């Protein structure tokens, strides 16, 4: 991490969930950027230092799974957490194998994020 405030990206095509997570994390004092699809997430990652990425598995343009190696190339120490409403065990295993830190099923509970100190 480059300073004391983690930089977090939320990438999800569900605008309500994205807004809730952005508001919650910003309220906790984090720098937060949002993306509505995989391609925008890649642009955000290329434009901003990122420590953590919460990304939806199923998004237009690029999936969350496709983003994992691209984000890791840009930010080798990034913590990636995948979010999905369509979770399967094989998909979770593949995500972890590719380097995701965790895999959460929607609906995501704020307490699962545990962001506030």
Describe, in plain words, how this protein is organized in 3D:
The chain has five helices and five strands; from the N terminus they run βαβαβαβαβα. The chain is an alpha/beta fold and 117 residues long. The chain has one domain: Response regulator (Rossmann fold, 3-Layer(aba) Sandwich). α3 links the parallel β3 and β4.
Summarize the helices and strands and which ones pair or pack:
Layout: E1 7-11, H1 15-27, E2 31-35, H2 38-47, E3 52-56, H3 64-74, E4 79-84, H4 89-98, E5 102-105, H5 110-113
Parallel strand pairs: 1-2, 1-3, 3-4, 4-5
Descriptive tags:
117 residues; 21% strand; alpha/beta; Rossmann fold; globular
**Beta-strand fraction estimate:** 15-25%
What is the CATH class name?
Answer: Alpha Beta
Question: What is the overall pLDDT average?
Answer: 89
CATH superfamily: Response regulator
Short description:
This protein has 117 residues and is α/β, with parallel strands linked by helices.
């Amino acid at each position: 991490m480059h300073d004391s405030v983690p930089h977090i990206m939320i990438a999800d095509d569900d605008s309500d969930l994205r807004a809730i997570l952005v508001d919650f994390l910003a309220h906790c004092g984090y720098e937060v950027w949002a993306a509505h699809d995989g391609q925008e997430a890649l642009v955000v990652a290329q434009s901003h230092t990122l420590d953590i990425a919460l990304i939806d598995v199923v998004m237009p343009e690029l999936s969350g799974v496709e983003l994992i190696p691209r984000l890791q190339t840009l930010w080798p120490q990034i913590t990636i957490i995948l979010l999905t409403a369509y979770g399967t065990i094989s998909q979770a295993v593949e995500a972890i194998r590719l380097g995701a830190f965790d895999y959460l099923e929607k609906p995501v509970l704020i307490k699962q994020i545990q962001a506030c100190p």
